Each structure stands twice: as C-alpha cells, then as structure tokens.
C-alpha cells in the first residue's frame, strides 16, 4: 500500500474517532387526558425538543399537529373528536418517534355528558351591609356564573377539588335575587336561586318616657324596636328580660339610688343596638335632723336663733313655728315661715328665726305638695292660765321634700 493510501486511511480513522457521540432522544410519561370531543396528549423528553402528535382512527391515516418550540415537557390539544370512538396516536420530537414500539398509543372518547353537575351553595339570606360572601362545591375546573337579578356580576372557575368562594356586591336595604349557575365542560348547566336581604340599618330602640326620679321600688319599663329583633333588658348587670319582637314590657325592681339600665336589640342580619340609661330611684322619704343654734330655751321677746340641719341633698326644706293659743288649734302646713334648699351635702340653714310669736308666713301656698303621714290633723293644745303666766313654748317643724315628692320631717319644742 502506498504511502498516500495509508495517509488517507489514517485520516478517516482519526475523523471517526473525533466525531461526537450522539445518543437517541428519550421519551417518557406519554399520556392523554380525554373528553367526549377532545384530548390533551402530554409527554416528557430528556432534552429540549419540538412537539408533534399524529392521531386518527386508522394507523395508516393519521392527522398531524405540532409545535416547533423546544421543550422538555410537551402538551398538545386535539379537538374535533367524535364521542365513543377509539383513536390511536404517536408522538414525535426532534424527528424521533415514540409509537409505543409499533403498537401505537390509544384512547377512547367517552359518551356525550348530558348530566348537569351537582351544586352546593352556602350563603346568608340576610346580611349586614352590601357585601355577600358565597361559597360552595361542584365539579372541578368548571365555570360558576353569578347573576344579580338578570345581570351577570361575576364569573369564576372552581379549583381542583370543585370548591369555590367569592364575594359580590348587592343592592342596599332591599331583597336581592341571586342566581348561581354551574357550567361543566360539556355545557351542562345547573342553577340555584336565592333571595338575600341587604340590611344597612341598625335597629332603633325607643323607650317610653322615663321619670327623672323613680319613686317606687318597682317600675314598669316599656319600649319598641324599629324591626323584629332579639331583645334583652339588663338592670345592674343582671339580665331580667329577653324576648323576640318589636315591643317589650317588663317590671324592674330598682335599688335605692342610681340603677344602670341596658337595653339591647339584635336584628336577623346581626346588627346590634345598645341603649344605656341611669334610673335614679328614691323610694324613701328624706330623713331630717336639725338644731337650734342658741339652744331650746330663750327669754320671750329676746330670742332669735339660726336653725341648721341635714337632710337629703337637693331637698326643699320648709320651716314652721307654731305658738300655742287660748283655744285648741289645728296645725296648718300650707304657709311656711321660711323655705331653703339643702346643698350638695344635704346641709341647710334658716337664718335669724324669731321665736317671739311671728308664726307662719303670709305668703300663700308655701308648702310641700303633700304632708308626710302623721302630720295631718295635729291639734295644738290650748294654754291654761298657769301656762299663760309662765313662759310660752313654741313648736318647731322642719319638713324636707325631695325630688320625687316624698316628704320627711322633724320637730322640736323651744321653751
């Protein structure tokens, strides 16, 4: 062999030795997700490559579709299939064909779906405000359409488990018709219709006029609510009444002094109104204590003294001085000698009271609205001759009338 021939052979050998090794493209996970008239064919390759599928009912008459993008995860959609039909297919990437070792891959389209999806919906038929929350379940990956009246307001897709959740706005303070429609991939529909009341107004509580002062230990409370509600009445942190409706009436057993009253109303939408009042209860006549500043003895025509005392704060205090006469005298409390008002601590003072027989005031109707028990019809005994010759004695009455009209009294004799 000549040197030239040897050189050529050596060159060819070296050329083959230095050529890169090329391995076949590897296919895996060839699958088809099928509906009655479509299919999605998917597969994996170990290197990026283009995507082609050939499919049909006859191995010799296959229809190709493809995508030139280089990918490792491939997926092509086939449409226009016939229901209840067997198909064969093969996949191709980078001119490499995977036809299941010559047996071809297969799928069969199902019969047409004429069954509507099941639909479960959760919502409140009465809501606070205008935002309505809706949740439910149906088939996976299908459309849910929401109508307010006849107008579509939202469209969403269920998740892989068939769940859905959303909020829509509804008209305020009126009854809204809500339609919820589920539409599956075959176009089957199911719908449900609800009536939902939007409530933006809290219930209003109106109480019958309350007295400034409750004069009895038991008081009847009456009230109305602007809409049907659950009603509760709480007095001094204790629940004493509960009912449902638009009116209520209950008896309150009040304590002496300030009583805390709370009335709540909760409507069907969950709005709560709370009304708080203080009830001032005065069921007892005021106690009266007083002293004559210069004592209970004096020399006639030389006696003037202030009278100081205590009673209920804010009470109106009346002073009466009665002088015995030669005839029996019925005491009259319609004209007081003086009138003062007790201060915030219940203290009062009558200044420079003259015990020389001036008697009662000439001002008409200077007296409390009513006399306390025991003072009506009191008779002042007449003086006998011995008493006339001696010093006179004077009967002093102090009456206190509180804000509820109750009257207490005290009396002393000045000699």
Describe this structure in words.
- Helix content is 5%, strand content 54%.
- With 415 residues, it is mainly beta.
- The strands form 7 sheets. Strands 1, 2, 3, 4, 5 and 6 form a 6-stranded antiparallel beta sheet that branches. It has a 5-stranded mixed beta sheet with strand order 8-14-13-10-11, with no helix packed on it. Strands 15, 16, 17, 18 and 19 form a 5-stranded antiparallel beta sheet that branches.
- Strand 13 (175-183) and strand 14 form a beta hairpin.
- The longest helix is centred in the first third of the chain and has 16 residues, at 3-18.
- The radius of gyration is 52 Å and the shape is rod-shaped.
- The chain starts with a helix and ends with a strand.
Uncertain spans, ≥5 residues at pLDDT below 50? 386-390
Shape: rod-shaped
**Rounded mean pLDDT score:** 88
Report the portion of residues in β strands. Answer: over 45%
- Count every beta strand, where a strand is a DSSP E run of 2 or more residues: 28
Distance from first to last alpha carbon: 172 Å
Q: How big is the Rg?
A: 52 Å
Largest sheet, strands/sense/barrel:
6 strands, antiparallel
Give the topology string: H per helix, E per strand.
Answer: HEEEEEEEEEEEEEEEEEEEEEEEEEEHEE
The helix count comes to 2
Query: Helical residue percent?
Result: under 10%
Structure classification = mainly beta
């Amino acid at each position: 062999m000549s040197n030239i021939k040897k050189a050529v052979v050596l060159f060819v050998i070296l050329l083959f030795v230095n050529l890169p090794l090329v391995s076949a493209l590897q296919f895996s996970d060839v699958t088809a997700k099928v509906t009655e008239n479509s299919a999605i064919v998917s597969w994996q390759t170990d290197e990026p490559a283009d995507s082609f599928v050939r499919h049909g009912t006859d191995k010799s008459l296959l229809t190709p579709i493809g995508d030139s993008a280089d990918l490792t995860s491939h997926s092509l959609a086939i449409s226009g299939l016939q229901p209840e039909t067997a198909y064969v297919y093969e996949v191709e990437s980078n001119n490499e064909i995977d036809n299941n070792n010559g047996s071809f891959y297969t799928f069969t389209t199902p019969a047409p779906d004429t069954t509507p999806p099941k639909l479960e919906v959760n919502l409140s038929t009465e809501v606070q405000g205008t935002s309505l929350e809706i949740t439910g379940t149906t088939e996976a990956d299908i459309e849910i359409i929401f109508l307010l009246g006849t107008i579509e307001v939202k469209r969403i897709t269920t998740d892989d488990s068939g769940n859905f959740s959303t909020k829509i706005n509804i008209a305020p303070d009126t009854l809204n018709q809500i339609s919820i429609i589920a539409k599956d991939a075959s176009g089957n529909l199911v719908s449900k219709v609800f009536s939902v009341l939007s409530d933006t107004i809290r219930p209003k509580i109106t109480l019958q006029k309350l007295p400034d002062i409750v004069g009895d230990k038991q008081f009847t409370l009456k009230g109305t609510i602007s809409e049907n509600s659950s009603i509760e009445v709480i007095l001094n942190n204790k629940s004493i009444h509960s009912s449902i409706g638009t009116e209520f009436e209950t008896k309150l057993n009040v304590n002496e002094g300030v009583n805390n009253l709370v009335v709540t109303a909760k409507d069907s939408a969950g709005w709560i109104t709370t009304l708080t009042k203080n009830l001032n209860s005065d069921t007892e006549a005021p106690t009266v204590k007083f002293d004559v500043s210069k004592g209970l003895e004096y020399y006639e025509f030389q006696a003037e003294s202030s009278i100081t005392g205590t009673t209920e704060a804010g009470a109106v205090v009346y002073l009466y001085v009665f002088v015995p006469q030669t005839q029996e005298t019925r005491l009259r409390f319609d004209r007081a000698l003086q009138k003062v008002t007790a201060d915030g601590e219940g203290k009062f003072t009558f200044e420079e009271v003259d015990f020389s027989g001036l008697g009662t005031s000439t001002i008409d109707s200077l007296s409390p609205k009513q006399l306390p028990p025991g003072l009506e019809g009191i008779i002042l005994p007449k003086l006998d001759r011995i008493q006339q010759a001696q010093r006179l004695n004077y009967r002093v009455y102090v009456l206190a009338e509180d804000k509820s009209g109750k009257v207490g009294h005290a009396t002393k004799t000045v000699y």
